[in-house]
Amino acid sequence: MRSSTRGDEELPALADTVRACVAEEFGVAVEHVLLVRPGTVRRTTSGKLRRTAMRQLFLSGRIKPLHAATSGRVVAAGQLGLP
Asked: One digit per residue, pLDDT tens: the chain, 83 residues?
């Protein structure tokens, strides 16, 4: 999802919407939702997601989110407490 008009106050609602859409579409609960700046998500030269690279960045805490929601509660960027 891209939008340059969303304010910081709208980010928690956007994270909730992402969580609800994934649950409805795929029937799974989402533990973490990170909203990031455009260009943060790594891609191959053909435009595919670099899933392994993104997973490593996520698990190491090296992704700087604009907003992060964990387990249904809102968490400030940098306070995810990931392993």
From this structure: 555 555 788 999 999 999 999 999 999 889 899 999 999 999 999 999 999 999 999 999 999 999 999 875 555 555 555 54
Pick the CATH number of 8-75 from 3.40.50.360, 3.10.180.10, 3.40.50.10380, 3.30.300.30: 3.30.300.30
Q: Global pTM?
A: 0.72
Name the DSSP letter for residue 3.
-
